[in-house]
Amino acid sequence: MDSTVACHLHNPTFYVKDPDSQETDNDSNPSIRQLHQAGFSSKNCLLFDDICRRDRTEDVEAFYNENLIRTHREFTFSVRKAMSAKVELWGEYKGVELFLEIEKSAAVRLVLFVYHPQFFFYHGQTSESALRFRKKFGRRQDLHLSVAGKLGGIQITPNFYESRHIPHHYGQFDNASNHLVKRLEKEADYQLRVAFPEQHKKIEAGIKSLVEKVKIDRPITAVPASGLTTYQLLSGDNQEYLRRERMFKHMTASLISAIQQSFDGILSLRTTADEKCLPSLLSDWIEVDEIDQIPRNLLLWIQSQDGLKIDRNPISSTDDLLLAYQLLSPLKQESRQLSLIEMSIKVATWYLSKAKKHRWNSVQSLIFPAVSPYNIMRRKCFRCGERVLDDPLACFAVADATKYVTWYRSGGCGRPECQVLGNAELVPASAFQEYRMARQETLQCLRSADWKDYLLISPLETLGYLPQTVETCCSKCQERWLDMRPRWTTEKSSRYVKRVRKCTKCSEQSSFAPKDPTVTSMAQSYCSKSGNVYDKTSLRAAFEGAHGVFAMTSERHPGKRITEEEEMKHEIDAGRNIIFAAKECGIKHFVFSSLPDTIKASNGQFKRIYHMNNKHSIEQLARKELDGFTALIPGVENTKGKTYLALGPGISPEGMAEVFTRVTGIPAVHSPISFEEFGNLSSALVGPAFKEDAIEMMQWAAIAPDDKICYGALEPEAEKSSEELALTASSFEDWLRRSRWTGP
Asked: Do you know which Pfam families this protein is assigned to (predicted)?
């Protein structure tokens, strides 16, 4: 009691070699053994529990009522009041602050909230993920423990969790001890059954219902519930899958609870799925005909589900509920008149079934789950164009993370007017969101270049000096065909782009060339060629015969999550391949989208904004290796070796929200998030290694000098494009009006 440091634990369990032992400091327990290894024991600090009875921790959480817990807490309070400790370690990780406990205006002790020892049970020692875990969470734990040691004047093991801790090395029980633990657990279970019969019965029924009706078909990775929030911060694909599985289990449990509370135990999840049972079981509810008459708990559950909303709007009317029923109903569902209550339960259980359904194994490795806020996709039916239920579990293509993965519904989207033969694809509601069907052949393909807007003259621009129609001939049978919408290249001497179509005479897929030999033409295949930035051979094939190259690189690596910061250099590799392929192909004009050196701009304060510094490195290499390097394309003879800044007028986030509202008529607000939140969101698209890059970028943006431009790296005089080229970048408002963008 006279120790200067106190370790406040949760409760003792049966996992000790001598369960009759009444001492908390028993190193046969894995958690206590870990504390000893870290340097904390009854020799230098006070160890005590919040609940002073040996039991399984999950049983304490599930069965102990308020009166029982109060008895333990009162004893714990008396211990805390009497102990001399000036530093108390308490609880699972809650934050990084140091708290001062005050009683009657007098300082009593300092309290540090740290990870519970059990948090470090479940991680490896030498794997990449284990090393990342140690670096991030072990280092943080060591920092807090070293502070506690210094404040309390005790000697502990330095850098224990980051460098020395070996998971699972806490000693092993012999067979006799294991049998004793199992016997005590059975006895405790019997005691709980007797002491809390109703609670025990309720839990058993819920478990049985969950296992029998909605069991998970594939095993769930074992992760301690106490570590869930921390795990989510890792932003890995597996963690998002795990989060979704946990979400489904929570959805199931909460629906069971809502049904039990709404119908006083007359329904279980099993009986709600049996259509024959519903009319008799719900006969008292058959006259309900208004949505607000549906039992509140059930209605709130339905309205809270993201996948039962259209355009993020929850079900709020009888018509909305009927539409959801139609959109979810199985193709061969026998139609009959349903009561509103039956319909609501059907909607809930069908939705659970669809949420539980796993993706096809053939495409599982080709897609990845999107993290919040990108996990919800507003959708419409491709056939009828009407809105359908939002997708709350959106996935994207691994080969191109900008492509949403779509699924189809047999026999139409479900609306009565969309009863069709075949499948109805459910696509993004936004015209700006690209997508791919969930098929191997479409998900494996490379991104195709959108060349038409850049290499072809618009129809309006051809008026006056180019033919409005072109007579062509089939290359196989010479059948004539009049092209009423000819496509012309943007070159000084425009060329006609040949059409490829099915010939009405020979029925072959054929190329149609101009009949007039004076009309120069080119095959469409020359307009777009695929190349892989990590494969210089494919780049040379794509660049062959080209005059100029406009190059961009990205911090994202298609098909790969970046987990180590060293891997961010892949962008430099891509840039080097592009530059040397262009050099070997004799490219006359090379344009690169670059960014400034933020290490230099910030005087060395921010060294991990890799995606900006990598582009600066690529720019320097291009200047060294290529003769015709520029940033805009009015003529290489005028811009050779120069940099032009594509910067629109400055605008604040609040200003963007105001302009967006004024231009689109859709209300918008600026809702700031923390650097940490921004890093988590950004790294979800690239990989965990990008998190610090994104955080430092925003930290630099927050303090960059206002009197400089280009991310605070250049003086205003460096902007010469308007003066030398008579060109200016679009403002945010100009871009909104031109693109007609109305939000995600």
From this structure: NmrA (PF05368)
Q: Residue ranges of the domains in the chain?
A: 5-177, 237-356, 361-443, 452-526, 555-587+597-744
DSSP per position, 683-700: HHHH-GGGHHHHHHHHHH
**Beta carbons of 33 and 172 less than 8 angstroms apart:** no
53 bridge partner residues: none
Least confident among 183-192, 605-614, 623-632: 623-632
> What span, in angstroms and rounded, lies between the C-alpha atoms of 642 and 539?
25
CA 86 to chain centroid, in Å, comes to 42
Q: What is the pLDDT of residue 734?
A: 84
Question: What CA–CA distance (Å, rounded) separates 732 from 684?
Answer: 26
Higher pLDDT, 725 or 468: 468
| Alpha carbon distance 310, 387 (integer Å) | 7
Pairing of strands 106-113, 87-90: parallel
- The three-point CA angle 688-689-692 to 5° equals 100
Considering only CA atoms, give the Rg of the chain: 33
Helix orientation angle between 340-356 and 296-304, rounded to the nearest 10 degrees: 40
Label residue 203 left, alpha or beta by phi (over 0 means left) and psi (-120 to 50 means alpha).
alpha
3-state SS class at 388: strand
SS3 state of residue 625: helix
Residue 583: phi and psi, rounded to 5, are -65, -45
pLDDT at 574 over 90: yes
Tell me which DSSP letter residue 721 carries: I
- pLDDT tens digits for range 650-670: 788 899 999 999 988 888 999
CB 451 within 8 A of CB 528: yes
What values do phi and psi take at 197, rounded to 5? Answer: -60, -40
Most confident of 129-143, 207-221, 439-453: 129-143
CA distance 143 to 159: 8
Q: What is the pLDDT of residue 461?
A: 60
Scanning the structure block, which residue is given the tokens 């991030």? 136
Per-residue pLDDT for 344 more than 80? yes
Give the separation between CA 395 and CA 520, rounded to whole angstroms: 45
Q: Which amino acid would we find at residue 414?
A: G
Contact 608, 565 (CB under 8 A): yes
- For the record, the structure tokens of 301 come out as 């559950």
Per DSSP (E only), the strands in 411-504 are 423-428, 435-437, 470-474, 480-483, 496-497, 499-502
Burial class (CB in 10 A: 0-12, 13-18, 19+), 339: middle
How far, rounded to the nearest angstrom, does the alpha carbon of residue 589 sit from its chain's CA centroid?
Answer: 39
Strands (DSSP E) contained in 370-507 are 377-381, 387-391, 395-397, 404-410, 423-428, 435-437, 470-474, 480-483, 496-497, 499-502
Distance CA 111, CA 95 (A): 11
| DSSP strand pairing (509-514 vs 499-502) | antiparallel
> 464 φ, ψ to 5°?
100, -30
Residue 723: pLDDT above 80?
Answer: no
CB-CB neighbours of 203 under 10 Å: 15
Tokens describing residue 420:
């069709």
pLDDT at 211: 47
pLDDT at site 321: 92
Q: What region, left, alpha or beta, does residue 612 occupy, with left being phi > 0 and alpha being psi -120 to 50 degrees?
A: alpha
Q: How many CB atoms lie within 10 A of CB 714?
A: 16
Cα distance between residue 557 and residue 685, in whole Å:
10
Q: Tens of pLDDT along 275-285?
A: 444 554 454 45
Residue type, 302: I
Residue 461: CB atoms within 10 Å: 13
Closest by alpha carbon to 263, among 342, 199, 207?
Answer: 342
End-to-end distance of the chain based on CA atoms, in angstroms?
59
**Percent of residues in the chain assigned helix, strand, coil, to nearest 5:** 45, 15, 45
What value does the mean pLDDT of the chain take? Answer: 77
- Read off the tokens for 269: 């999840």
